[in-house]
Amino acid sequence: MIYCLTGKLLKKSLDMVVLSCAGVGYQVQVPASVAGALPAVGQEATLYTYMNVTDSDVSLFGFADEEQQACFKMLTAVSGVGPKVGLAILNVLTPQRIALAVSAGDHKAFTAASGVGPKLAQRITLELKDKVGKGLAEGLTLADVAGPGAGAPGSNLAQAAAALTSLGYSSGEAAAALSKLDETLPVEELIKLALRGMARR
After folding, report:
1. What is the 3-state secondary structure of 104-134?
2. How far apart are CA 35 and CA 41, in angstroms?
3. Quick one: 19 exposed, middle or buried, by C-beta within 10 A (0-12, 13-18, 19+)?
4. In sequence order, which residues have a C-beta less than 8 Å from that of residue 142 and are 6 or more positions away?
5. Which helix (H) or strand (E) holds 149?
6. How many CA atoms are closer than 13 Å to the CA of 29, on its beta-carbon side?
7. Pairing mode of beta strands 24-29, 58-63
8. For 59-68, what is each residue's pLDDT tens digit?
């Protein structure tokens, strides 16, 4: 398994890049958000990868960080979610938004992705709810929840969710309250806004 690649960018489009590593050019399919964040062609870049092997094809999928990579692996473990659908979901939702949508049971969030209908969206939230909800309640990142290795600091949303569950709210209530908030806000601000939102209900 190729875990990550670091090399010179030879080509870049909205959904694919070619990285030259030790004289070998690797074609890697990426979400549009990753392609947009990569440096210019000719510069060095690192992608965290997932290799998909079928009877007729070997494909590499690349991500900006380990959390995106872990999220993709977790999504594609759901029956009916192939690599193309996994990429489509990551085109429209960040790993943090995916975690919150799953915890809150908000399957409609997934239907924004190309190739995801209501039934598949419901299956994604059902199959991942326990795994993701438990991890968010413990303040873990998706990389911790979905893959081996722990101890990485949680995102602001994950820390806010952990704080809300420690106050007695369920992980679903916490996720629902945080799902509409800006994930770049400080943890204290997220908690304050979530509590205000829950008090209005």
Report:
1. HCCHHHHHHCCCCCHHHHHHHHHHHHHHHHH
2. 11
3. buried
4. 67, 70, 71, 74, 95, 96, 98, 99, 132, 135
5. none
6. 16
7. parallel
8. 999 999 988 9
